[in-house]
Design brief:
The structure is a homodimer of 318-residue chains. Chain A is α/β, with parallel strands linked by helices. Helix content of chain A is 37%, strand content 20%. In chain A, helix 1 crosses helix 2 (98-106). The longest helix of chain A is centred in the C-terminal third of the chain and has 25 residues, at 232-256.
Chain lengths: 318, 318
């Protein structure tokens, strides 16, 4: 039987999403499994394998699956492991041979990469980067991830871990402490957590009136809501975030000369506030030959499908 | 007749070097042509073509040349042009189809790239990066250039200009003005000019005794000579230079996860003063998983041959 379908799985700390996908990027069936809380990788793989088999059967595609693509935090494309992933209790303190275990459990080839690389594959296969050979995907979520595509291939580097752009230095002088232990990382400023932190710092530093003064435990979503309501401080938080992001993007362009930067993730929904300051800062910090030439694009994939599509894109190579 | 030899040409502002090279990287014959000062690209190509034909004949390899590799400032691999190269009067104000013109004049296929990419090819083909698939070459000369190798291929990006690491931002806060018009570029600190400037700034800022106080128009070579003589200020200039360089190298590693960084160029001769501070700063600024794993190597190629070898390496692909 022809194998014209793939499965995409996005492994997350709270839940994992899986879907059966066709070559046009249609998700034929999908499911979400809440994290069971087990710290035993074998239990996790068994639960997932059952859900995969059931979903394939539900889609009526048993025997027609070419491969399974998995996107996971700290997933390594070269050796199929998930290692030291703080949000996954079963892979937080060591290395799990996830691709091998899952293949054995399901009997279908498995390819694995980190979530940001999977997102880049998804954009290249089904999204705004379709047809592009050189672009950089930046995922602006709780943290900042990246997937770098060079000459049509995801960049993995010598060890499978290339593309940690969230941990390049954005602010060298008195930079914020990042979750990774370093200071000044891009992630400490341009993630959802970074945006909320900027807002809280600015509210403390001045008496400027702001809708955000009435909010407890400010999140980036609160900042976005306030900006939409015309709150000046909230709008400036996004301008600042865009400036820091754009400065860093300029350095990334000087590294790999991409056609475009693709922004993805929760924070990218604040496009109307982020786009202009990000583009301006990027152009101001680029060598003249690149100014005005590198596009900043926002992912158009349906949020609910994007993670599954990204992971599934990996499976077509199998 | 088998074509088992190549020609390598390094185009420079003061002179151009050319050599006939065999597959083991032996330079069989070489020549240096001083810049004629002409601003007519056709005159330059004609002069060079005559010198090439004469050198091939001198080496006894007429009819045995597979191709010609050219390394030139602002050389573009994709379209074979040299464009807006400030140090070349005949290519300073526009774009010259150099590869095409030279091929027509000599009757041998020509491939062209920028000088730092050529240096990276040289290291990969004949030097310390032999056998490596992922490394970054940093040329520390008058300026700072770079050649990035990913999966065994030089990175050219979407437009042929990838790898301008000398113009990534090393110092965001009150950074020095760089020759490119931006501020804080790596080149403004870690080039020969940057080192001399650091020394001059520090001498002005304090009354600290230093051998350099007796030198007029301090160059990086003067700083090196003073450091060798035990001059404390001069040694600290290299420590500072290494710290800035190492910080930037960490960001580059987080981009492409190379096995090694290869340092090349005049300033790299100050290895004994640069190596430790550069390695220390790189490791301190890397994510934990890379600390202690990425090597910093110094080019071992004979200085007189390196430029020719680098360019010639390109010709084997023809």
């Amino acid at each position: 039987m022809a194998k014209n379908f793939v499965v995409g799985i996005d492994i997350g700390g709270q839940s994992s999403k899986l879907g059966v996908v066709d070559a046009r990027g249609e998700v034929l069936a999908q499911n979400v499994i809440p994290a069971s809380g087990s710290s035993d990788a074998k239990v996790i793989v068994k639960e997932l394998a059952q859900a995969i088999t059931a979903l394939i059967s539900q889609a009526g595609k048993t025997g027609e699956i070419r491969g399974i693509g998995v996107g996971a935090p700290n997933g390594n494309y070269y050796n199929g492991t998930i290692a030291f992933a703080p949000n996954l209790p079963w892979a937080a303190h060591g290395s799990v041979e996830f691709a091998k275990l899952l293949k054995e459990a399901v009997g279908i080839p498995v390819s694995l990469t980190n979530d940001a690389n999977a997102a880049a594959m998804g954009e290249m296969t089904y999204g705004v980067a379709k047809g592009m050979k050189d672009f950089i995907m930046i995922t602006l979520g709780t943290g900042v991830g990246s997937g770098i595509v060079i000459n049509g291939q995801v960049l993995y580097g010598s060890d499978g871990f290339a593309g940690e752009l969230g941990h390049t230095c954005a602010v060298r002088h008195n930079g914020r402490l990042c979750g990774c232990g370093k200071t000044g990382c891009l992630e400490a400023y341009c993630s959802a957590i970074g945006v909320a932190r900027t807002a809280r710092e600015w509210l403390e530093m001045s008496d400027e009136p702001s809708l955000l003064r009435e909010v407890q435990n400010i999140t980036s979503k609160d900042v976005y809501t306030a900006a939409c309501a015309g709150d000046n401080l909230a709008v400036r938080v996004f301008e600042y975030t865009g400036k820091i992001l754009g400065q860093s993007l300029a350095d990334f362009v000087e590294f790999s000369a991409p056609e475009a930067i693709v922004l993805f993730g929760g924070l990218a929904r604040a496009k109307e506030f982020l786009y202009e300051p990000t583009l301006k800062a990027m152009n101001e910090n680029l060598l003249p030959m690149w100014r005005g030439k590198v596009r900043i694009l926002f992912s158009q994939l349906k949020e609910s499908d994007a993670a599954i599509l990204g992971a599934s894109a990996l499976a077509w190579e199998l």
